[in-house]
Amino acid sequence: MIESYLPILIQALIASGFAGVTLLLSVMLGKSSKRNAMKDSAYECGMLPLGEAQPRFSVKFYIVAMLFVLFDIEVVFMYPWAIIFKDYVNTIGHDIFWSMMGFVSILLVAFIYAWKKGALRWDN
Amino acid sequence: MNPLNIELGLGVLGLLLLLAEPFLSSSRKVLAYVAIAGLLVALLTLITSGGSMSVPATMQEFYIADALALFYKGVAIISTLAVIIISLEYAPVLNKFVAGDNARGKEAGLGEFVSLPLFVCVGMMVMASAKDLITIFVSLELVTVSFYVLVSFMRRSAMSLEAGVKYLILGALSTGLLVYGMAWVYGLTGQMSLDGIQKALVNWKGDNTPLLFGAALVLAGLGFKVAAVPFQIWVPDVYQGAPTPITAFLSVGSKAAGFAVLTRVVETFTAKGSVIGDQVIQLLLILAGATILVGNLSAIAQTNFKRLLGYSSIAHAGYLLLALACVHQHSLAIAPRNIVAFYLATYLPMTFLCFLVLSAAKAQGVGEDLKSLKGLGHKSPLLGLALTIALASLAGLPLTAGFMGKMFVIFAATYESNYLCLALAIIGAATGFYYYFKVILTIYSTPEVETEKIRLSVLSKVMLGVFVAAIIVIGVYPDAIQHVLVAAVK
User: How far is A116 from chain B (nearest CA, A)?
Assistant: First the structure.
């Protein structure tokens, strides 16, 4: 049982060993002690870094992203429901339809609420 | 009648109020009155047809409507009613911290502040009936997620936001612990329903360590929700930062629902013959002892009334846990689950009274420090008297409801011979007298600056009268609650 985990251990050892050896070699071979402003600056693929590291985004982006996730999840739930619908509609009956309609209508309320509250307006 | 209808009705009402909010042009207070009317109808339905409710066969696996469930459903509805009435008092403060300067006249945010407690109420009512891990989890999340929004509702107040972030992070952590524990219990027993888990625990062969690990994680997760030490760190800051009606809701409603679930879970773990029964009782006793001690001792030094009530809420959770741990006593006529229910029923009116006074005071420009409450008893004699009765009851003065609750807990612990916890409970009760009476002393002392008389709306006055009456009636005639608990079975 426990022997079957041996490859993982070896993999972990190789990974950490490679990282360790690389770091050690760069200290031994490179001129690591010499520091200057250029060396300490952020490395941006060779470009000079511009602007701030964390620019501020308008809150509108977050609202749209949240709404997207919300309605994306709705579809995630609807796919499996649509697939099993035909198999179960005879055994469970109409409940299988109305339970999904209930779920969708709750989300519809949320959608109308978000719309009326101006969450979808971009121009203010 | 299907008991789930009440929950569904309240949920639909919450959705309709949410939908009405952006379309409404008149005062947002209408929404609060509609919610109050809806909750009253739900309460009436529960009282009149509670006994005759039957759970359909398809739901019996995960939903139960016994006396305990109906009792906690009632507690959920009454606390939601009280919260909405208190938020009407608190509306000016909410408006100040929710709306920007240009939208201040429009009562921004009050509509959502009414509909979200309804969702919490639905969650708490389902929690009261849940007897299956999935149902417990989903209903608990409905409550917790709504609370994340409510706690950080005053978005222009840095303290409310801080409280929201703290509650979110620790709430997520506790949910993680709870779900991890549930996964262990389910993985080991192969059962989702509490009945099935109980059977598996009784018939368990072999090592019980993994089971104990799962059970301890579940207890830790629920310990966060009911604010048991050492899972209480979030309480003072969140209680202080959250809008006052929500603090009251957290400290009564959320705790009651947490204990409803905890009662069922602990009864499952400690059932007769369960292989982890004794260890779970030990764990509960340790939690209870630590909670009583830390809650009461930390409350002594508090100068902010809201924080003091937060620590008081921790201390009371300790007594409740102690009652839960007393599973063996047979000589006492009242079962531990009923002691817990009784204690929560007494805890509800006294805590809400304190928060009602606090909200009204804050809305009318008085601070939340103990110092700024000075002279309240002289300026508004009736309000001062109500607060005095509530605080005396929280301390456990005889002839008030709080005394009977504590007495039952101490009786149960005596029968069980938990002498260490008994000693801690008595030390805690004695400490309580000091810090609750310090508040009473403050409100009757002479203020440094003249304060205005605090005015209450008619609804709040009715609530004040009903709760004061409840404290005294239960304190003199505790059988009233016992009858409710027993009669609901018939």
Answer: 6
Neighbours of B36 (CB within 10 A): 17
Tens of pLDDT, residues B35-72: 999 999 999 999 888 778 888 888 888 999 888 899 99
Residue B41, Cβ density class (10 Å: 0-12 exposed, 13-18 middle, ≥19 buried): middle
ipTM score assigned to the predicted complex = 0.81
Q: Which residue has the tokens 């009765």?
A: B389
Enumerate the domain spans of chain B. Answer: 4-487
AA letter at B452 = E
* Chain A, chain B: beta-carbon pairs less than 8 Å apart: 14
**Of B265, B287, B289, whose CA–CA distance to B277 is shortest?**
B265
Measured in whole angstroms, how far is the alpha carbon of residue A115 from the centre of its chain? 25
The answer to whether residue B8 neighbours chain A at the CB level (below 8 Å) is no
d(Cα B69, Cα B71) in Å, to the nearest integer? 5
DSSP string for residues in A20-73: HHHHHHHHHHS-TT---HHHHS--BTTBPP-S-SSPPPPHHHHHHHHHHHHHHH
Cβ atoms of B325 and B309 within 8 Å: the answer is no
Of how many residues is chain B composed? 490
User: Does B101 reach chain A within 8 Å, measured CB to CB?
Assistant: no
**Chain B interface test: which of A113, A115, A116 (most B C-beta within 10 Å):** A113
Closest CA to B65 of B49, B81, B79, B78: B49
Q: In whole angstroms, give the CA distance from residue B138 to residue B141.
A: 5
Residue of B nearest to A113 (CA): B19
Please give the Cα distance from B278 to B290 (Å, whole number): 18
Query: Would the CB atoms of B15 and A112 count as touching at under 8 Å?
Result: no
Residue listed under structure tokens 């921004």: B108
pTM > 0.80: yes
